[in-house]
């Protein structure tokens, strides 16, 4: 049994794709990503709402650090932007699902979200804290 793809409405078998050098995805590639996403969602749903809020703040800080690195033209992994943005979106989705289970409407949800954002205490992202600790350890090693 040969699997097939559709290109402009024309069905093409994967054997033909190899001949045409198309960039058709192999039949099992979608299954792997789905399982990984489901695992991540299970991991997020296992956390409390407070832990999700904490991680959202940390990830947004990391995203800011990436933007700063990009603007300073430093080396960085561009794939991290998409990965972090998607993780933040998944966390916000789980947070909203929980609000819906509690019967919180959209308008009240936005109001609560604004209040939560006002109460966030600014703090450096984990990667910056780690970098500072490494620099401090290097200085301590040099001075001794």
From TrEMBL:
Residues 130-144 have a biased composition (Basic and acidic residues). Residues 123-144 are annotated as: Disordered. This is Large ribosomal subunit protein uL29c. InterPro entries: Ribosomal_protein_uL29, Ribosomal_uL29, Ribosomal_uL29_sf. Gene3D superfamilies: 1.10.287.310. One of its GO terms (cellular component) is ribosome. Belongs to the universal ribosomal protein uL29 family.
